[in-house]
Design a protein that fits this description.
single chain, alpha/beta, Aspartate Aminotransferase, domain 1, 7-stranded mixed β-sheet, 11 strands, binds pyridoxal-5'-phosphate, HisP_aminotrans
Length: about 350
């Protein structure tokens, strides 16, 4: 909603909360010859004896350049998981508020809701894995604070129709989080370019997938300056460690390498679709806008254990709504993908 007062959505205790002021926050204009005896650090130099920049300024500057947003519209977290948790803590009153999720989708939204004692209202996607806009808006009540849209969605692999997303952005009276963990594999545009239009829009991205840095845990939140300022007040002061900041910056200056890997994954995705369609027990391969494929097969539990026995670990999604007998395959290296196909062929003949 364009004329929503975001301050009114905040939890009462968050409205006036004071951030912890770290030593590094209080004195930032460091020059090389200054003496820093303010933070009880070990003074002997290694590359990590000092606390890291609590605002991760260099990484944010680079992201701002790449994405065309202001650094004040960016918050970084220890993975998207931390960013999502901060959103719960900023907006959802435990034991009173609720969030809306659209299963089948990423499991962390409901885990974090449980953790924060926030009720979950689930509205299943439709048969084409699209949001049921009317039903979602009818489900919303006074206490519905966040709507989670995962696009491209995990595990269904599709991006949501932009008309549906826009309807929700225009009519949902709370925060709309669009989780774009897989946006770099997608043909659809990021909603980042619409950030300034919707005060309730939060876009999350991550370095864990296309950027190949799952191990450093770096999640990104883009939102209005107001929302970012609130999240900044409640985040742990040094939530992104020095090694992660260094590694992220290094990768973000070599985008040509990232692009090469993404291109390879996209090429492999098409090859894999062709080859999978020749496996007799695969009933359908859902269209993918991500770096994985959701496939419907004859018996997911049986095929899952047959694959495990032959050393291939896939994700069994059969217990998820609308995903009966579905497995999820991440696109691997060309060699890994060939191994998957060979193994599936072997299994289908036995
Ligand atoms: C993998 C994934 C993430 C990434 O989470 P990180 O904590 O940043 O590693 C976020 N959202 C979805 C939907 C994912 O599948």
């Amino acid at each position: 909603m364009k004329d929503l007062n975001i301050n009114n959505l905040l939890r009462e205790n968050i409205k006036n909360i004071k951030a912890y002021s770290s030593a590094r926050d209080e004195y930032k204009d460091a020059t090389a010859d200054m003496v820093f005896i303010d933070a009880n650090e070990n003074p002997f130099q290694s590359n990590v004896n000092r606390y890291p920049d609590p605002q991760q300024s260099k990484v944010k500057q680079r992201l701002a350049e790449i994405k065309g947003v202001k650094t004040s519209q960016i918050l970084l977290g220890n993975g998207s998981d931390e960013v999502l948790d901060l959103l719960f803590r900023a907006f959802c009153e435990p034991n009173r508020d609720n969030v809306i999720t659209l299963p089948p989708t990423y499991g962390m939204y409901s885990v974090l809701a449980d953790l924060n004692a926030v009720e979950i209202q689930s509205v299943l996607l439709d048969d084409n894995f699209e949001p049921k806009v009317e039903e979602i808006l009818a489900t919303q009540d006074m206490n519905s604070k966040i709507l989670f849209l995962c696009s491209p969605n995990n595990p269904t692999a599709n991006s949501f129709n932009s008309h549906n997303v826009e309807e929700l952005l225009n009519n949902f009276k709370g925060i709309v989080v669009i989780d774009e963990a897989y946006i770099d594999f997608s043909n659809s545009d990021s909603w980042l370019s619409r950030l300034n239009e919707f005060p309730n829009l939060v876009v999350t991205q991550t370095l864990s997938k296309a950027y190949g840095l799952a191990g450093i845990r770096l999640g990104i939140c883009y939102a209005s300056e107001f929302i970012i300022s609130v999240l900044n007040k409640i985040k742990p002061p040094y939530n992104v460690n020095q090694l992660s900041q260094d590694k992220a910056l290094e990768r973000l200056t070599r985008l040509d390498e990232v692009k090469k890997e993404v291109d390879s994954i996209l090429t492999e995705r098409e090859i894999l679709i062709t080859k999978l369609s020749e496996i007799s027990f695969i009933k359908s391969i859902y269209p993918s806008d991500a770096n994985f494929l959701l496939v419907k097969i004859d018996d997911a539990n049986q095929r899952y254990s047959e694959l495990i026995k032959r050393g291939i670990v896939v994700r069994n999604r059969t217990t998820q709504p609308l995903c009966e007998n579905c497995l999820r395959f991440t696109i691997g290296t060309p060699t890994e993908n060939e191994k998957l196909i060979e193994t599936l062929q072997l299994i289908s003949k036995s």
